[in-house]
C-alpha cells in the first residue's frame, strides 16, 4: 500500500524540489480514495517535466491527441507525456511503475483501434519528439528516433542515395511498424523491417536503459522483432542501410476497371510463382476498393522496383491492361507519397478506421472466389451506401520464401512465419460516425471469416496473423506458434518480472497467459 512518506522519498529521489514535495502533500491532504495516487503520479510528472507534460486544459493537448490516424484511437488521456530522451522516459516509467498507472505508448499512432497507441485512463507517452536521425561514418547504419515517420527517414537518406527497409507509405511511424514486423518494398530482397535492425535502445519496466542486439541482451533483441509493446519502450532503432542506384527507384500506381478484377488476381498469382522468385528488387501492393459514393470498385496496384527501371518481373500486371498508370522513375520519398495518396492525404478529414488480417496460400482460383465474395459483401449491400464516409479496401500482400529466409539469416525473429510463399490479406474499413461502428465492424469480421472458411476448404489457410494489419480482437501473438509464445513469455518474465507491460500497458496485442 502506498503511503505519503514513501511517495515523498520516491519523488525526492527522482529530483522533485521541496516546493513540489509540498504540493504533493497538499494534494494528498485534500483528496481521498485510492484514485488519488494516479493524480499524484501525474503531478510528479508535471513537476519534473513542466514543458513536456500536457494536461487536458493545456495548449497542445488536443493537437497531440489528434495525432492518432483513426478517430477511434483518439482517446483523452489524463496526461500526455512528450519526452525528448530515453532518460525522460526512464523517469516516467519509474513513476508509472511505482503508482501502477495505466499507460499507452505512441510512435506514429497509425494503429486504428482504441487502446494500443492511446488511452482514456492514465498516461499516454507520445514519442513524437524523439526524431533523431544520424548516419554512421561508414554510412551502413542509420540511428532513428522512434518518433520518426518513414517519410522523414527517406528524405534524410535521399542525398546519400540510401534507404532502409521500412514502411511503404509516408505517415506511418517507425516504432509500431518495426516492432510488429514491418512489410516493405524491400522485404523480398532484405526481409521484414524488424530483420533489418542492428540494435534497439530500450527502456525496460524498471526504468533501465539497455541495448538489445545480436551480441547484447540477445533474447530481448529477438523478442522485439515482432513482439510489439510487450517488453519495453524503444527509444532508438539502429537500422542497416541499403543502396539506391543513382538515388532513384521506379514505381507508381496502376488502376483497373471492375471487369478486369480476375485479370489482376491472375497477375498476382503469376508474379508470386515466377517474378517474385527471380527478382527480389520488385514489389507490388494490389488493393481492391469499393467506394459506395461511386457505386463501383477499383483495383489499384502499386508497382515498385529498386533499380529505378521498369522490370520484366511485373509484366503480368501491365498485360492485364491498366486504364491508368503513374509509374515512372522517382525518388523513394516521392514513391512513398504516391503510394500513400500524395500531399492531399494529409489534408483529408479524419475518419474512423479498422484493420483485419488473414494469411492464405497462393491460388488464382481462391483469389477469384475472394474478390467475388468482396463484390457480394460490399457492392451488393444496399445498406452500405447510407453509411457516411464508408469505404473498404482489400489488400493482397504477396510474401516470398526469401522474406522469411532473410529473417533467419539475421538471427531470427518472433514472428513464426512458415517458410512458404503466401499472401497476407488486409481489410481496411473507413467510416465517419461512431453510431456506425456496429454496422461496419461485424461486416468485416464476417467477411474475413468467410475467406478463412474458403481457404481452409482448399487447404490454403495459414495461421499467421500480421500484427501491423490486425484487428483488436485477433489473437496475433498466439498465431506465432506455441514455441514462439513460450520464448516470448520467458523473455517478458526476465525483463519485466512484475508484468508492467502486460498489466498497465493494456492496449495492443498482449502475450497469451
TrEMBL record:
<dbReference type="GO" id="GO:0016491">
    <property type="term" value="F:oxidoreductase activity"/>
</dbReference>
<comment type="similarity">
    <text>Belongs to the oxygen-dependent FAD-linked oxidoreductase family.</text>
</comment>
<dbReference type="InterPro" id="IPR006094">
    <property type="entry name" value="Oxid_FAD_bind_N"/>
</dbReference>
<dbReference type="InterPro" id="IPR016166">
    <property type="entry name" value="FAD-bd_PCMH"/>
</dbReference>
<dbReference type="InterPro" id="IPR036318">
    <property type="entry name" value="FAD-bd_PCMH-like_sf"/>
</dbReference>
<dbReference type="InterPro" id="IPR050416">
    <property type="entry name" value="FAD-linked_Oxidoreductase"/>
</dbReference>
<dbReference type="Pfam" id="PF01565">
    <property type="entry name" value="FAD_binding_4"/>
</dbReference>
<protein>
    <recommendedName>
        <fullName>FAD-binding PCMH-type domain-containing protein</fullName>
    </recommendedName>
</protein>
<dbReference type="InterPro" id="IPR016167">
    <property type="entry name" value="FAD-bd_PCMH_sub1"/>
</dbReference>
<keyword id="KW-0560">Oxidoreductase</keyword>
<keyword id="KW-0285">Flavoprotein</keyword>
<keyword id="KW-0274">FAD</keyword>
<feature type="domain" description="FAD-binding PCMH-type">
    <location>
        <begin position="73"/>
        <end position="244"/>
    </location>
</feature>
<dbReference type="InterPro" id="IPR016169">
    <property type="entry name" value="FAD-bd_PCMH_sub2"/>
</dbReference>
<dbReference type="GO" id="GO:0071949">
    <property type="term" value="F:FAD binding"/>
</dbReference>
